[in-house]
Design brief:
Keywords: Signal. By secondary structure, the protein is mostly beta strands. The protein is built from five helices and 31 strands. About 5% of the residues lie in helices and about 45% in strands. The radius of gyration is 22 Å and the shape is globular.
Length: about 450
């Protein structure tokens, strides 16, 4: 008989999860394929995030709800989780941008858009729909607007960072002041704002604005940085990497150009914690964007940062930035090659401390579902540069992962959610060492809605 899990369950949280990336040091495992298994944390909370339909199936614009169970119940297929009817509504005008603490005991949220847009809140996780707000709220809207792109840095749950970029086309005045038609496009000025947030004390730590130019040759052709996201702290904790999307105008008309040569993937590098001295580094291996979408797009592992790219003409790559704060262009990990598909597009991903990762992706062969292209999960090895589709998880044309945000890493295990838009599904737990997949608790869905991950 299936159990409906809608009551509060209390117990002592054991100890902080030692398996998360945030705790791995620069000498963790290295390229040694023989890694001692890391045991899961006893009694860890698993929080499921559910995105309700707004106007269209799968848009997630009807609000976000969260519901938590123990790791034991998350693995139990007799448990039924009905977050849409029994979960806590997280303040956000659209799909909330959620983060969790390393041990799963705390949830962090910054509201996205609307009257509360930019407001930071955090909650103690207490089981079921019971999340107790702790600390004070603080707004980052004065710094980065009401629809901020933010992420939690992996520094022991101490700091969050949010970013924005504004752009302005610039012209050389070759005519009279009244004859604007003679103005010649020269470049696009991209101004970046970065704020860091004290997650423990709910206060602003620092804010800086900077110009982020490309090379003169790239700018003369109309290229500019149009979107940024996913700040990541390096191993030395003295640089912040920020992913970037590159756009282009036709320099003859200053009109948007959508048919252009894709540049090498780029990342902005800032001094940390000052948030000053920006530089831009470029990959010669991957092409396309590095800003990701709603899930963390780059992670620290073994002293380097591994970063996914999107919209690469050769399919998504996982790129490597070494301790010298430059791309390692000898590291070539292409998902098309590894998976035997064309047009692989990494939607979200998360590695464990052993260098094995779960990747959510689509490709050119994905079916067109009610909300977009069908998604899949793969098990990836960062050291061996291999990837294998996880066939033990069921797939459906309406299994939509574009808005996916959360993976739980607990030791060598990674938890994911699977449910087609508007249909029931399950939690699945992947052992990254053995590849074994455990079917867990049922996820109860509602019309046009979907699940955006586990935290």
């Amino acid at each position: 008989m299936k159990r409906n899990f809608i009551h509060k369950k209390t117990f002592a949280i054991a100890f902080a999860c030692i398996g998360l990336l945030a705790s791995c040091s620069s000498d963790d495992n290295g390229d040694n394929p023989t890694v001692d298994p890391v045991e899961p944390t006893a009694g860890r909370w698993i929080t499921v995030a559910a995105a309700k339909m707004g106007d269209n199936p799968g848009d997630g614009n009807g609000g976000t709800l969260i519901y938590s169970v123990t790791s034991e119940d998350a693995k139990d297929p007799s448990v039924s989780i009905d977050a849409f009817n029994n979960g806590l509504i997280v303040p956000s005008n659209r799909t909330a941008r959620l983060q969790s603490s390393e041990d799963g005991s705390t949830m962090f949220n910054i509201s996205y858009a609307g009257d509360t847009g930019g407001n930071y809140t955090k909650y103690n996780v207490e089981g079921g729909q019971n999340f107790t707000k702790i600390g004070t709220e603080v707004s980052i809207a004065p710094y980065v607007g009401t629809a901020p792109r933010w992420i939690k840095l992996f520094d022991g749950d101490k700091t969050g960072s949010a970013v924005y970029v504004s752009t302005e086309h610039q012209f050389d005045d070759n005519g009279t002041p009244d004859d604007a038609t003679d103005d010649t496009y020269s470049r696009t000025e991209a101004t970046m704002g970065v704020v860091t947030l004290d997650l423990e004390n709910s206060s602003i730590k620092n804010f800086e604005e900077s110009s982020i130019p490309l090379t003169p040759e790239e700018e003369a052709l109309g290229y500019y940085i149009s979107r940024i996201d996913m700040p990541t702290l390096n191993a030395a904790k003295d640089k912040l990497y920020i992913g970037a999307r590159i756009s282009k105008v036709d320099p003859a008309t200053a009109e948007s150009d959508s048919d252009f040569e894709i540049l090498g993937s780029k990342t902005i590098v800032l001094d940390y914690p000052s948030l000053t001295n920006p530089t831009v580094i470029t990959s010669t291996v991957g092409h396309g964007n590095t800003n990701g979408y709603r899930s963390i797009n780059s992670f620290l592992y073994n002293g380097s940062v591994y970063q996914a790219n999107q919209s690469d003409p050769e399919g998504s790559h996982i790129l490597k930035i070494d301790a010298n704060n430059e791309y390692d262009n000898t590291y070539d990990f292409n998902l098309d090659t590894a998976l035997g598909v064309e047009g692989a597009y990494i939607l979200a991903w998360r590695p464990a401390a052993n260098g094995k990762a779960i990747v959510a992706y689509r490709h050119n062969g994905s079916a067109e579902g009610v909300a977009g292209l069908q998604g899949f999960f793969a098990l990836v090895d960062l050291n061996a540069k291999t990837a294998v589709k996880i066939d033990a998880i069921p797939y459906d044309p309406d299994f939509y992962l574009f808005q996916y945000q959360g993976f739980v890493v607990d030791g060598d295990e990674i938890y994911v959610t699977q449910a087609p838009v508007g249909e029931n599904g399950n939690i699945y737990v992947i052992n990254t060492v053995t590849g074994e997949v455990t079917k867990g608790a049922e996820l109860v869905n509602t019309t046009g809605s979907h699940f955006i991950g586990a935290f």
